[in-house]
Amino acid sequence: MSWAWLALVDARPDDVDAAAGLRTLGGEPAGVLAAWRRRAKPVRHALRADARILDPQGTSARISLVLPPEGHRLAFDDLAVQQARRDLLAGEPFAAVTTLLRDDSHFEGSLLVARGLDAARLGDDPFARLFPARVLHVSAGVLGRMPWPAGPVIERHGSAQPWPADRF
After folding, report:
1. Residue 65 burial (C-beta neighbours within 10 Å; 0-12, 13-18, 19+)
2. pTM of the model
3. Which has the closest alpha carbon to 101: 162, 149, 18?
4. Which of 120, 101, 103 has its CA nearest to residue 111?
5. Distance of CA 73 to CAs 39, 82, 101, 116, 120, Å?
6. Inter-CA distances, 78 with 51, 74, 106, 152, Å
7. String of b and e for 48-58 (b: at least 16 CB within 10 Å)?
8. Phi, psi of 110 (to 5 degrees)
9. Where are the domains of the chain?
10. Which of 151, 147, 23 is CA-nearest to residue 96?
11. How far apart are CA 66 and CA 165, in angstroms?
């Protein structure tokens, strides 16, 4: 699996690989979702994400962004994280999903992407049962579609290797 860095920033960085403006559902500006495909962390608060979620040609979408409050961390093995993952995979697929992380063993958030009628289902994001979610509109230019996980991509078979996303 290849990784990318995602961060919410106030303005589009010059060195970004993809970025798009965010708005609340009420239409208020909510910053920029920026993405980088590189090894080095581009900004201090950036989180790793599955790079397949990125698409500079991607159309606008709604997202459910789950981020834990400062200082809170959950292990991927925590039963609540595992149940959220099961609940998400048991439902109808969305356009894309990725968990967010700082290291190889802790859940640091999630990003769920929906388009069209699926956007109404974002209010029932299973990861939002762990930490509060922000449902936002993201403009075109950063998020695409990716194959829905075929199996337990959150579990590890080696500390830095997620289970292969295309098979179980």
Report:
1. buried
2. 0.87
3. 162
4. 101
5. 23, 14, 10, 32, 28
6. 24, 6, 9, 14
7. bbbbbbbbeeb
8. -150, 160
9. 3-138
10. 147
11. 21
Tokens read off for 60: 């606008």
Round the CA-based radius of gyration of the chain to a whole number and report it. Answer: 15
DSSP 143: B
What CA–CA distance (Å, rounded) separates 76 from 78?
5
Query: Looking at residue 80, what DSSP letter applies?
Result: H
Quickly count: other Cβ atoms within 10 Å of residue 104's Cβ.
Answer: 13
Tell me: the pLDDT tens digits for 5-59?
A: 999 999 999 999 999 999 999 999 999 999 999 999 999 999 999 999 999 999 9
Residues 17, 38: Cα–Cα separation, whole Å:
9
The token pair at 146 is 């990716």
Tens-digit pLDDT profile for residues 34-49: 999 999 999 999 999 9
What contacts 29, CB < 8 A, 6 or more positions away?
A: 21, 22, 23
The residue type of 104 is D
**Would you place residue 126 in the very low, low, confident or very high pLDDT band (cuts 50, 70, 90)?**
very high
Q: Evaluate whether 120 touches 49 at the Cβ level (below 8 Å).
A: no
